[in-house]
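Researcher: Next sequence.
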Amino acid sequence: MSIEQFTEEISTAFQFSGKSILVGGAAFDKKNIKGLQVKIPLSTINRHGLIAGATGTGKTKSIQRIAEALSEQGVNVLLMDIKGDISGISKAGSDNSKIKERMDSIGAAWSPREYPTELMTISKERGVRMRATISEFGPVLFSKVLELNESQEGAVAIIFKYCDDKKLPLLDIKDFRAALQHLTDGDGKKEISESYGAISTASSGVIMRKLLELEMQGGDQFFGEKSFEVEDLLQKDDRGVAFINILRLTDIQDRPKLFSTFMLCLLAEIYNKFPEIGDKGEPKLVIFIDEAHLIFKEASKSLMQQLETIIKLIRSKGVGIFFCTQSPADIPDVILSQLGAKVQHALRAFTAKDRKDIKLVAENFPSSDFYKTDELITELGIGEALVTVLSEKGIPTPLVHTMMCAPQSRMDVLSSKEQDEIIAASAIASEYNEVIDRQSAYEILKGKLSAAQEEMPEQEEKIVEEKPNETSSSISDTIKAVAGSSITKTIVRELTRGLFGVLFGSPKRSATRRKKNSLF
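Model: Next structure:
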């Protein structure tokens, strides 16, 4: 086909009536056509996407620029920063002649700009701490995280039910371990036999080992209070520019179980908390999962089914998910089939297997009259990609060789001092970084055991005066004392769990804070 035919077809395919974000400029015969732009309709961002390519081909910069464009349109972003090279988005970039030349050829303006940013963490990195309680997972999801069989899942359900009935908050791993030990030994075992059913020693042993494995991967950092409210991902500055939330994960690359646990919890919580808006509304939040293969690396079959279900349903909540990885083969086919937008950077063919994989990748794109896709994938330069998106009618656009837009923010990491400055200026960091270890199942059950071992009435009376809620001679007395305190009332409540085994409701902050930081 001629360049005229190419220009006409691409300009028609990427002309949208509603809002869109600019991805880059179209190229024909490896030459950029000035002013012929490639865009993604904002209304189809929640149909999810894929950004793939070999190391050093420009994936991270594509993620950075798309995130910037979404922020400018008022769409919040959550970025998983595993390599630690995207935090510079909070600072303005530097003028560069090559960048200006690239953007001139695309036909778009470029100027240095910084974006409102929150740095977050689920480990020991600097940032706003994102946590969740065991109770918020619920028995179904928590069992899947631990990769338990049907019998062991039943034991977990018993523990949750018992703790709900007895008002024993399950906040962290030590709470769940204490409850499991109590119900499989001594008085606790007898107590549940008639009303709940017994927990076998074999099931108890397996669950204990699974808890230890999760704890060793950093689960003790993630489980606990204060639970992160997902509405706080939707902050905007006084200009209406949406915050870009950067989750710093540089220290968990060797702990895929913690990463997949966090992602499942986060997606399930977002699904339950965000209101239904259908497919036609503009997205509220877009999540970019870099090094996405880590989610699937050790995922069990049940976890994959859970993730597949959430991916299918969460788009109606105004949430888009972009998986970013080196090869599309890293993403299971059942997930890959749900992704509407595809940005494919270069792949390198060093072996016969590489060439075979590239042919398979090429077959997943729409057929093209303009390119030999399997050959062009290996010839793309840095900052170039093959792009296809969904039109406003949900129809895949033609595949187009695209010169990707350059980020306007800094394409480098932040210094430690700059990170500290961002955290200090955060409106939510002080709230979530406060260390909280409230009285929960561990403390209550420990107090019960201590009381049972006391023989002297005088000693019992002394303990009751100092810590009345830890020395009751029975669970019912203990619960009554604890439930009467103002602190416990805020965390002890009947749990109503949703489709994915997480809470519909959670403790609310003041109306002033919620109005300021949430869209709801």
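Model: The first helix runs from residue 3 to 13. DSSP finds 21 helices and twelve strands in the chain.
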